[in-house]
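Q: Joint fold for the lines below.
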Amino acid sequence: MTDLNKMVETLIAGDRRVLARAITLVESSREDHRKSAVALISLLEKKSQKQAIRIGLSGTPGVGKSTFIEVFGSFLTDCGLSVAVLAVDPSSARSGGSILGDKTRMTLLARNPAAFIRPSPSQTHLGGVARRTRETVAICEAAGFDVILIETVGVGQSETIVSEICDIFTLLLAPAGGDELQGVKRGIMELADLILINKADGDLKDQATRTCADYSGALRLLRKRAQDPEGFPKAMTISALEKDGISDAWKVISDLVSWRQESGHFELNRSEQSKFWLHEDIRYQLLSILDKDPIKTDLLEIAEEVASGKKNLALAANEILKEISIKKGELG
Amino acid sequence: MTDLNKMVETLIAGDRRVLARAITLVESSREDHRKSAVALISLLEKKSQKQAIRIGLSGTPGVGKSTFIEVFGSFLTDCGLSVAVLAVDPSSARSGGSILGDKTRMTLLARNPAAFIRPSPSQTHLGGVARRTRETVAICEAAGFDVILIETVGVGQSETIVSEICDIFTLLLAPAGGDELQGVKRGIMELADLILINKADGDLKDQATRTCADYSGALRLLRKRAQDPEGFPKAMTISALEKDGISDAWKVISDLVSWRQESGHFELNRSEQSKFWLHEDIRYQLLSILDKDPIKTDLLEIAEEVASGKKNLALAANEILKEISIKKGELG
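A: Joint structure:
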């Protein structure tokens, strides 16, 4: 525990080497590391009162996400703010190489002393990715960062995870022709506080303006949320390449944050997120007993029988449920 | 079991009184009723090969849902098809009176011998509502109905439930002015196969056409799904009042059904739905131990401590998880 206390002190003092070590601890699946990680975060929460602005950023490959983060991150550090960039990529376990990828695709920011980039670790379970990201955010917040950018690639449910961790959710899109399918995953548009149409430069400028109008229209068709002031969610054009609209985007984000802080929605959202993750963590760990043999194998087999109509659903469910047993203290 | 065998025979023969009794059995929470219900459905599945077209219909109050169901249902029975109308309304437990409501708001269809209307029972748990609706659909399908309309009011997660039960999901909307918020719940548009803009009559006709164009545009911005032929999801105008566009809507629906049947997506979707519900049922019943005291009360208390920042999330989760115990055979 003395070790942890020291770690907390140097972390809050801004030591980047300790920050990286703390995150590695959080990412570890070893049981003793896990215990230390929980203790560390619990200590950090007691010691640090600092609140960062947590911005979620989603966008499919090709929309210019790396360029945007480089330019947006550098803009923020020029304003005197410190920035941490985290990635949520449940697919990196399969594709591999994202650790090298992250640092080489944001070379400017990687060398910037006011910025910190942490790539996504290889993890297959979404529950694990969620916990790791949440805890890394907590550590970066305690370490004093002003802005935490949480980037995701638009695979599966990673957007939902990010939206339940961040204060502001941003969607980055490329300009598209009038009738062209933009490929926005169903369900992502609804999470966005701000849609940024990138590449509003050169030949694509007009197209970006039209795409922006399309999304503004689509956003108006959705129900207004309590945590939104007039005019939100909003769509706007930017050009990361020409550094155009970057300060405007930051103004929109910080205005929205101020509005939510004053109206109480900012704190309310964080409280709701904490409750959500408490329930999710408990559910996730309770449900994890379904992933263990012999139940896992039985469930796979019985699911095929139900799908093909050979077995009744309710009877099949009962067969599996009857097998389950948990001893007090076994979980947790 | 002899009783159940007789019930199955008369049910498949088309006895409406027995149909109503079977549904009541499925809705009961008494343990012996539950056992009979499971046995009944298992028997029905073995005896009946009939497949209905299951159409989900969502729309907020005021869009003309009752009028549409009356007119659409009557159109189908005029075509020689039998129709069952089921309602999914998790809120009816609170608002009350929906049992009377359903039959009085669709007086024509209620007297139609080729139609069967079953209002939503009072149930608070979404898991219960989902199971009851799924099983009622199975019974109606075995009873030989050609089309099953599953109506929902757009409260909470009821649309997700309906979309995982039906073959085609339809969203009914009213015309809206250009900039007016339509109040479509985020996440519902993404479920729709077909958006029907109702009230395309009289003064509202032009407005309905414009609203339809808006939604067509918004739908084009979403990613194409494998189970959709060219041009889907689709938006179109109708007038339930003037019985305009009703046969067109049916043509669009039955063409989509044919396309999916021929491409294999229809069966694939049903298989996936079965698997989904098997896992959901098992998860729901496993997680239900969190709703029992003392865990329930402890969880409520600890969630407030986490929300206010008094307690660390991971430590709180572990405290709850350590309490959990399940004996083999206790569930199911």
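Q: Anything notable?
A: The beta strands of chain B are 53-58, 83-88, 115-118, 147-152, 168-173, 194-197, 234-237. Residues 92-100 of chain B have pLDDT under 50 and may be disordered.
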